[in-house]
Amino acid sequence: MVTTEPAPSPDDGASTGKRAVRPPWDKSGPAEGGSFGEWLRRQREMREISLRDIADRTKISLRYLEAMEADRFELLPAPLFAKGFLKEYARYVGLSPDEVVNHYLAVHQPEEGTQVGDATLAAMERKRAKKGRSWTWGLFLLLAGALLLALVALLSWLVEKRGRQPSAEPPAARAAAPPAIPREAPRPAPPAVLPEAPKAPLEVSLEFTGDCWVRVGVDDKPPIEEKRVQGETLQFAAQKVVNVRLGNAAAASIQVNGFPFDFERKPGQVVELVIDLQTARALREKREAR
Amino acid sequence: MPLASLLRYFSKDLAIDLGTANTLVYAFNQGIVVREPSVVVINKLSNRIEAVGSEAKEMLGRTPGNIESIRPMKDGVIADFEVTERMLEYFIRKAHGRKMYVHPRIVIGVPSEITQVEKRAVRDSAMRAGASEVFLVEQAMMAAIGAGLKISEPSGNMIVDIGGGTTDVAVISLAGTVYSRSVRVAGNAMDTAIIQHLKRKYNLLIGERTAEQIKIELGSAYPLKEEIRMEIKGRDLVEGIPKTLSITDEEIRDALAEPVASIVEAVRMALERTPPELSADIMDKGIVLSGGGALLRNLDQRLRDETGLPVVLAEDPLASVVLGTGKVLSDIDLLRKVQIR
User: Fold this and answer.
1) Cα(A196)–Cα(B199) distance, rounded to whole angstroms?
2) B107 to chain A nearest CA, in Å?
């Protein structure tokens, strides 16, 4: 069967590999020349097989067989069928199906890219892919941008909020270092107060035995808010009243003018305490009564 | 969930062919990234996964008592929900190459005749495996798209997708299914038929993997030009000792007669039920075969003889479904059209 085919397979392998400009079957019949379809027809006629024989055997319609021999592969329903039908044709005529398909691809590959169904689908797919990706990216960028904006807004709001607190006392200091001031505010307080400690009618000291959030308002000054950990202490000197709010009642103990101040101490409980001169007096009287 | 939907922008969209025999994963803009058998090996004591995919298939039928090898899919649907979920999770992560923050949108192909419960199982296991959104599509339709058929045209196409668990026959026109039928006879049924045949005729017991090997090397649906022989090893049921046997392709053809006849019958049934206009189109173009079962030797010849229609094999039959699903992944309009709910 294969004897009639002059072009040996190694030759074909090389030429299809290179996608040679000169079609591989031309070598088999240089004098005759012609296209791929003509080559198919010659191979068939050489073996004295009629198209109808092939159509009967392979069930491929005569129309398509004729189209293939006329190189009009665009008439076939899809590229898949071109290859499938060619294989059948080759098998029946007695050629190697793979070789025939390789020959076909060598000639019709570039056209196939633009002409046949796969191409339109592929192009569409590529377009969609690009669209899909840009859409996804656009949304992602938008999201990232929004997130960044929100962050900046939050930060500036925080800075402003912190800056406003100390501004009540020293308006000039706000511009200098707004975030630093509230941190410093409670600390200088005890040393500043210490020398005049005896003068201050109300002295409150907090001792922490665990993590605790605390807010303390001394007299009419704006309250300070902080988180304290185990072992730390806070001291305040006030003229009239000290408002204390604790995030974790069990983690703090309070002394007023050196006397322990009792309150309900459940873990995790938030307590609000108002310590004024009356409280201090009551504590002293209680101690003296004992 | 809002976090998952945000994270999906950092994950590649995936197309999955969750098959009875093999699972293939196609990543958007990347191509097929996973092509492995649907097998999971689990340590029963620690409930830990020992291996998934190719590695696990090697262990199939060779595990000690405390280790179990499981095929979580059966007849094209989920048989073991939990194991399927873990297998999917493994494949999804493998496709991404990382373990954290993987929440892709996933398109999964399912057989045409599955129940709502079975659909739900597929959807849920994909969601639990980390998907942010799951779309289900019909396998036969995907096979047609993957094979390169122009399904959106008003012209009939017939596709026969022979997988591991099910054979899906569908007639498609205008991106819709005109007729579809799914029979639970496919690759696995052929393996079983071979096992049964050898047991009955030679009292020889062979394993699943050997049966599959025989099917691949000797299996055919129509007489071959030259006879092929093969040595097979198994256990003699009478004497109880290992034995070697030499069998021919004819023997296996006999064994496969029943499952092949079922497939042919399904195709004939589909042809019978196809509206005449579409019949004419199919008469013209013929039948397209896809799926691993399409690789059975001379099955196209057999179908051609039985139906009198031209039969064409898809180019990469094993990957047709996942390639089609991958195409749908990048074409939202098409996905809307073919999606099943």
Assistant:
1) 105
2) 16
Question: If DSSP states are collapsed to H, E and C, what string results for B132-191?
Answer: CEEEEEEHHHHHHHHHCCCCCCCCCEEEEEECCCCEEEEEEECCEEEEEEEECCCHHHHH
Q: Do B148 and A79 lie within an 8 Å CB cutoff?
A: yes
pLDDT at A133 over 80: no
For residues B79 and A173, the model is more confident at B79
- Residue A22 reports pLDDT greater than 50: no
Mean pLDDT over the full length of chain A:
73
pLDDT, position A237: 83
Q: How far is residue B16's CA from residue B27's CA, in Å, rounded to a whole number? A: 9
- Comparing A172-186, A235-249, B82-96, the range with the smallest average pLDDT is A172-186
- DSSP class per residue in chain A: -GGG--S-HHHHHHHHHHT-SS-THHHHSTTT---HHHHHHHHHHHTT--HHHHHHHH---HHHHHHHHTT-GGGSS-HHHHHHHHHHHHHHHTS-HHHHHHHHHHHHHHHHHHHSHHHHHHHHHHHHHHHHHHHHHHHHHHHHHHHHHHHHHHHHHHHHHHHHHHHTS-HHHHHH-TTHHHHHTTTTHHHHHGGGTTT-SEEEEEEESS-EEEEEEETTSPPEEEEE-TT-EEEEEESSEEEEEES-GGGEEEEETTEEE-----TT--EEEEEEHHHHHHHHHHHHH-
CB contact under 8 A, A88 and B310: yes
User: How far apart, in whole angstroms, are the C-alpha atoms of residue A128 and residue A124?
Assistant: 6
Rounded CA gap, A206 and A242, in Å?
12
| Contact between B148 and A78 using a beta-carbon 8 Å cutoff | yes
Q: Record the pTM.
A: 0.66
Given a cut of 70, whether residue A198 has pLDDT beyond it is no
Pairing relation of β-strands B105-110 and B133-138? parallel
pLDDT at position B23 is 94
Q: Which residues of B are less than 8 Å from A128 in CB distance?
A: 330-332
Q: How far apart are CA B184 and CA A237, in angstroms?
A: 87
* pLDDT surpassing 70 at residue A211: yes
Give domain A12-113's CATH superfamily.
lambda repressor-like DNA-binding domains (1.10.260.40)
Which residue among B148, B285, B312 sits closest to A117, beta carbon to beta carbon?
B148
Give the model's pLDDT for residue A115.
Answer: 35
How many CB atoms are located within 10 Å of the residue B48 CB? 10
Query: For B17-59, how does the pLDDT look when each residue is reduced to its tens digit (9 = 90+)?
Result: 999 999 999 998 889 999 999 999 999 999 899 999 999 998 8
Distances (CA, A) of A61 to A12, A65, A87, B155, B213: 29, 7, 15, 16, 37
Cβ-based burial of B66 (10 A; exposed 0-12, middle 13-18, buried ≥19) = exposed
- Would the CB atoms of A83 and B147 count as touching at under 8 Å? no
pLDDT tens for B250-273 read 999 999 999 999 999 999 999 999
Residue A2 token pair: 């294969």
Q: Report residues of chain B scoring pLDDT below 50.
A: none
Indicate the burial class of B293 (C-beta count within 10 angstroms; 0-12, 13-18, 19 or more).
Answer: buried
Q: Which two tokens stand for residue B135?
A: 């779309």
Q: Return d(Cα A36, Cα A16) in angstroms, integer.
A: 14
Per-domain residue ranges for chain A?
12-113, 202-288
